[in-house]
Specification:
The protein has a single domain, classed as Four Helix Bundle (Hemerythrin (Met), subunit A) (Up-down Bundle). The chain contains six helices and no strands. It has helices spanning about 20-40, 50-75, 80-105, 110-130, 140-155, 160-190. α2 runs antiparallel to α3, α2 (about 50-75) packs antiparallel against α5 and α3 runs antiparallel to α4. The two termini are about 35 Å apart.
């Protein structure tokens, strides 16, 4: 119940999980870090220091994604707010990074478009079936996310050589898994397991 005596519909009144909890706070932190990261990537002077700072801000935001889900599942703190805000925060962070990297010429636009179209489509599918429950991320989906994060961090840090090879390889893996897990997710929505 909220302070006004009305049910807290963005929490989980059935399981008595409050809206204000650590996983939701981490999700909100990620949402706050997205524009800060975007500023550092695109508007701040592109000094070596700012590049390292933008990579650090991105990595901290990405780690909140892993921590909020782990914490929510481990301590039973899954809320309606988290089910909605978490994927939005994830897509906002990855989308900002990919669009920014495409704008500065690090990532080809077609790669960014393929990944973003898949991410938006899966998010819309999640909202469509949320009343039936959340389809958990597959192992491939988790590897896709890790590959995206590794690629983005490698593109952000001001080093060349082997780091560029890591970035390109991780992005190739992420791109392949983006397509495959997108098809798998759509199949699970269309033909849910019984």
């Amino acid at each position: 119940m909220s302070n006004f005596g009305k049910p807290d519909y963005l929490g989980d009144p059935v399981n008595n999980v409050p809206l204000i909890n650590i996983p939701n706070a981490l999700t909100c932190l990620r949402l706050i870090l997205v524009p800060i990261f975007g500023y550092l990537l695109l508007a701040a002077p592109q000094t070596t220091t700012n590049q390292w700072i933008s990579a650090t801000v991105f990595l901290v935001a990405a780690l909140t994604d892993f921590m909020d889900g782990l914490w929510a599942r481990r301590y039973g703190l899954i809320t309606n707010f988290g089910k909605i805000a978490d994927p939005i925060a994830d897509k906002a962070l990855i989308g900002t990074a990919l669009v920014g990297l495409s704008l500065i010429g690090e990532v080809a636009w077609w790669v960014t478009v393929v990944i973003l179209v898949r991410e938006v489509a899966v998010t819309l599918l999640r909202f469509r079936v949320i009343k039936r429950g959340v389809i958990p991320a597959s192992r491939g989906g988790k590897v896709k996310t890790v590959s995206q994060i590794v690629a983005i961090v490698a593109y952000l840090i001001p080093m060349g050589g082997w780091v560029t090879t890591v970035a390109n390889t991780a992005l190739g893996v992420a791109l392949a898994l983006t397509v495959l897990t997108g098809i798998d997710y759509a199949a699970k929505v269309r033909y849910p397991p019984s």
